[in-house]
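User: I'm new to structure prediction. If I give you an amino acid sequence, what do you actually give back? Let's try with this one:
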Amino acid sequence: MTLDQIPLGSRARIVAVDWSLLAVDEVQRLRALGIEPDAEVTVAHRGVFAGRDPLAVQVGRMTVALRRAHALAMIVEPA
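Assistant: Good question. You get back a string of structure tokens that encode the predicted 3D arrangement of the chain. For your 79 residues, that looks like this:
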């Protein structure tokens, strides 16, 4: 399943990221923020509009806003 499918408030472990779906600068930013395989994340908030953007996830003590396109590139499993 992809990160955008995880229920609100649930924890997940990133299994893989398809970096080829993202722009090079986005890849660098996400990696710098700790979005990598084996990282544990918690879905903290979802946007309320049709696209449900942005998606806010907690990585450690940090909250990171992601576009749905970023979340679609991340394969996760429940933690």
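You can read the tokens as a compact description of the fold. Here is one thing that stands out. The two ends are 13 Å apart (CA to CA).
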